[in-house]
């Protein structure tokens, strides 16, 4: 690969075989047969195309985040970080309408904001030395999504907070597997997370798992599938099942360990079960057509609507920049056709850290596809 990367990832692996993720065994004595079972190995081989698609998207994620890690330093405008990261993502995945591209907006949430923040146009926020930034972005190929995130802090006093979230994510991944119970995984994550404390400006805080955030199963073109992986202990007896794809994400906070929606909204998605409501506002109809054509049910942000291509050069090669759309967007949200996802915030003055990986529960093993040498 060049530096900075410019060669599409598929060109680097012309045989269609992409780097395999980290392989772990499924935990539990009842799963030991899986590594040697001929039946499970045969089932595994049948899914090879799916695994290669996930590995392809994961390799794009690794190369894009390595590029982003080279950009991130104090003084960087968050809008510049996002636009450069997203441009690189489109380039390396070889964006093609809904078949491949960005899976969701680039989250770059700072400090007490845990998630769902990306700058809207006009937001001139600059990254500073004292910030703790969660970078959460996704790639997708044929609707197969890689969702992975890490945290950046320049001041070493925040290191234990980052280490708590990272260790908790790894603990959660380690005890995930076929027939593992979701509530117990949450308990493991919480136990590791809350064994850490962090001293900031001379005051010591316990690190808390943010109890109303969670990991999730991943469906086709569906970042948040039907199953939730808690990050605190719950009595949810639901089991993980063979063939499922999950993102385990952990959030540690020095605040209350609880988030609420607050602040200007940037993230939106068309509801998968959008009601068939008559729209009386002509502008709302045209905006909805644009959203459906350009994003389907994948999440998007306001910045993308305002691009010359309206969010995708391959869907709208002649341009489709959306202007004067806010009233129409409000109408779509109010009717339930589009869901708004405002920033998720803990108490002001607190700090939060996040780590996240995507893995697939293969019949024979667990493959952490988004693992890299960075995290």
UniProtKB/TrEMBL annotation:
Residues that, per the record, bind a divalent metal cation 1: 136, 147, 356
Single GO term (MF): metal ion binding
Peptidase M24 domain sequence ranges: 53-257
GO biological processes: proteolysis
Keywords: Aminopeptidase, Cytoplasm, Hydrolase, Metal-binding, Protease
Descriptive protein name: Methionine aminopeptidase 2
SUPFAM superfamilies attached to this UniProt entry: Creatinase/aminopeptidase (SSF55920), Winged helix' DNA-binding domain (SSF46785)
EC number: 3.4.11.18
Binding site for a divalent metal cation 2: 147, 216, 249, 356
Annotated substrate binding sites: 116, 224
CDD domains: MetAP2 (cd01088)
Top-rank taxon, per record: Eukaryota
Family listed: Belongs to the peptidase M24A family. Methionine aminopeptidase eukaryotic type 2 subfamily.
Taxonomic path: Eukaryota, Sar, Stramenopiles, Oomycota, Peronosporomycetes
Its biological purpose: Cotranslationally removes the N-terminal methionine from nascent proteins. The N-terminal methionine is often cleaved when the second residue in the primary sequence is small and uncharged (Met-Ala-, Cys, Gly, Pro, Ser, Thr, or Val).
């Amino acid at each position: 690969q060049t530096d900075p990367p410019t060669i599409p990832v598929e060109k680097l692996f012309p045989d269609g075989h992409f780097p395999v993720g980290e392989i772990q065994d499924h935990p539990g004595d009842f799963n030991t047969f899986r590594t040697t079972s001929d039946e499970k190995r045969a089932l595994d081989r049948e899914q090879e195309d799916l695994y290669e698609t996930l590995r392809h998207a994961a390799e794009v994620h690794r190369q894009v985040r390595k590029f982003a890690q080279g950009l991130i330093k104090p003084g960087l405008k968050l809008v510049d970080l996002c636009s450069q990261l997203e441009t690189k993502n489109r380039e390396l995945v070889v964006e093609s309408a809904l078949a491949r591209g960005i899976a969701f907006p680039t989250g770059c949430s700072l400090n007490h904001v845990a998630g769902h923040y990306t700058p809207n146009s006009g937001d001139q926020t600059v990254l500073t030395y004292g910030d703790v930034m969660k970078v959460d972005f996704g790639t997708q190929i044929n609707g197969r999504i890689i969702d992975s995130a890490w945290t950046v802090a320049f001041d070493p006093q925040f290191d234990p907070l980052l280490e708590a979230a990272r260790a908790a994510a790894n603990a959660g991944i380690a005890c995930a597997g076929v027939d593992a119970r979701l509530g117990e995984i949450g308990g493991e994550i919480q136990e590791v997370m809350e064994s850490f404390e962090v001293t900031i400006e001379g005051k010591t805080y316990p690190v808390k798992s943010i109890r109303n955030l969670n990991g999730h199963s991943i469906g086709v073109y569906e970042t948040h599938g039907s199953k939730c992986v808690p990050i605190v202990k719950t009595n949810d007896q639901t089991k993980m099942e063979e063939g499922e794809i999950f993102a385990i994400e952990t959030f540690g906070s020095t605040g209350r360990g609880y988030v609420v929606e607050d602040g200007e909204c940037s993230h939106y998605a068309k509801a998968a079960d959008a009601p068939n409501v008559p729209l009386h506002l002509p502008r709302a109809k045209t905006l909805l057509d644009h959203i459906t054509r350009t994003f389907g049910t994948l999440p998007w942000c306001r910045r993308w609507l305002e691009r010359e291509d309206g969010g995708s050069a391959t869907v709208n090669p002649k341009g489709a920049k959306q202007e004067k759309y806010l009233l129409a967007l409000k109408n779509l949200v109010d009717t339930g056709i589009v869901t708004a996802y405002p920033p998720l915030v803990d108490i002001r003055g607190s700090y939060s850290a996040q780590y996240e990986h995507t893995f697939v529960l293969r019949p024979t093993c667990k493959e952490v596809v988004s693992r890299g040498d960075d995290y």
